[in-house]
Amino acid sequence: MFDDAHVLCALGGFLVLAHACYAVISYRDELKIAGDEFEGVPVQVAVECAIGAAMCAWGALGFAGEFMPIAAQPRELPPDNLEKMGDFVTFNHRGTARRRKRA
After folding, report:
1. Tens place of pLDDT for every residue, the chain, 103 residues?
2. What is the pTM of this model?
3. Measured between alpha carbons, how far is 91 from 94 in angstroms, rounded to an integer?
4. Domain residue extents for the chain
5. For site-directed labelling of 46, which of 28, 62, 77, 81 has its Cα 20 to 30 A away?
6. CA atoms within 13 A on the CB side of 52
């Protein structure tokens, strides 16, 4: 199961993201103890999140396997006699009454 590089990279990416979460939680706890305000995430944690997300993305591409070309399917056109049927054409609708009120 862990013999593929993509699987190892994806698992490593999740571990890096989990460590980044732990680092933010411990950073906030340290700020609470010191009595400082939380203004933002440290740069080290932001870089760690970017690296972990990139590792997860590369690992997920490996799970999918090889890309297959998309073959276009020809569409069937409706028969000509169905387009010219006027059974469902309505000329007496509320749009005409609305137009009359404005004039």
Report:
1. 666 888 889 999 999 999 999 999 999 999 889 988 888 888 999 999 999 999 999 988 887 777 788 887 777 765 565 555 566 666 677 766 666 554 4
2. 0.59
3. 9
4. 5-64
5. 62
6. 17
